[in-house]
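for the recovery benchmark. tokens below, seq after
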């Protein structure tokens, strides 16, 4: 794969010498490499077109958002994709795989999880700031990258359908989790009655989608704009809480390690509101914590649905991983 990454890079820069190719820690969806050259470094990413079947729409969204942020003098680094040597926004190889290239932001680092409340405050503030700077860009100008991404009604229906179609062995393995999610569905239905404004949102607000300065506390860029599209602020804040405020990652199998950190929650809420408060209406401000509960519960349901469907969406390293992720998120939901 390293050789293939180098070959793909040549579609962008045919004559540029490569010093090194380094695979970076993969997310659940895409695969990323750092390409080091004598004159600088780049990020080469293979897009999962099963999840993102319209890469041109992602590129157009990124370009619109980047232009808007630049026009408004957004104070952080702005993500941009580089064209291929042929002037195309991305490269499609002989296998039909889609690749895009961006400049590597030097002297930055990513964090897999928060280390202290200062990081949490600053990271949540960075996402709040990002949303605020995009708040006067009309959502109608953006493509919907994943239809119904945060549609809880649809997720509930997918869960019900998975239950109908899954084999008995799978259902028996997660009986308690099925029952717990079924008991929590009225909460989701109540949250769905809220009238929330449609805004441009990031939709994947974990701390690893921020680049930090070497001090490990100062965010310098919001990255991974693949799911940048119309959505609700409660979903973005909810995913901040889901991914920042647990004592363990969503892959932790020891549920005793999964505890909701109230001090991190306070830091996240204060940081987010320090930047986003002026753009929020009263319903949004009053339901931030409920938004977090909703996101965590829906994520648990999505993991369980994927397990029942045979692990067709999220990348897994063993057959029961999505079931374990479900248990993890339900423990976090109870803890919250």
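predicted aa per position
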């Amino acid at each position: 794969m390293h050789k293939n990454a180098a070959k793909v890079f040549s579609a962008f820069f045919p004559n540029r010498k490569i010093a090194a190719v380094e695979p970076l820690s993969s997310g659940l969806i895409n695969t990323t490499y750092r390409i080091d050259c004598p004159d600088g470094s780049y990020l080469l990413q293979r897009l999962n077109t099963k999840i993102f079947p319209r890469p041109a729409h992602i590129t157009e969204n990124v370009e619109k958002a980047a232009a808007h942020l630049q026009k408004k003098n957004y104070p952080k680094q702005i993500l941009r994709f580089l064209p291929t040597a042929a002037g195309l926004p991305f490269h499609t190889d002989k296998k039909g795989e889609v690749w895009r290239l961006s400049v590597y932001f030097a002297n930055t680092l990513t964090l897999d999880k928060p280390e202290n409340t200062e990081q949490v405050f600053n990271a949540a503030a960075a996402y709040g700031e990002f949303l605020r700077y995009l708040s006067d860009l009309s959502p109608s100008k953006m493509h919907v990258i994943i239809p119904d991404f945060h549609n809880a009604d649809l997720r509930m229906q997918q869960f019900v359908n998975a239950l109908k179609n899954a084999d008995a062995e799978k259902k028996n393995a997660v009986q308690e989790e099925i029952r717990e999610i079924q008991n929590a569905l009225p909460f989701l239905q109540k949250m769905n009655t809220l009238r929330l404004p449609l805004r441009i949102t990031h939709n994947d607000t974990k701390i690893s989608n921020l680049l930090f300065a070497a001090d490990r506390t100062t965010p310098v860029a919001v990255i991974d704009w693949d799911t940048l599209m119309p959505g609700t602020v409660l979903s973005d804040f909810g995913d901040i809480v889901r991914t920042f405020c647990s004592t363990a990652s969503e892959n932790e199998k020891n549920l005793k390690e999964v505890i909701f950190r109230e001090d991190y929650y306070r830091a996240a809420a204060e940081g987010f509101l320090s930047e986003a408060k002026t753009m929020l209406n009263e319903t949004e401000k009053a339901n931030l914590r409920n938004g977090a509960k909703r996101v965590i519960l829906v994520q648990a349901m999505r993991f369980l649905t994927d397990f029942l469907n045979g692990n067709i969406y999220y990348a897994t390293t063993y057959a029961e991983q999505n079931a374990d992720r479900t248990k993890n998120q339900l423990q976090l939901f109870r803890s919250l």
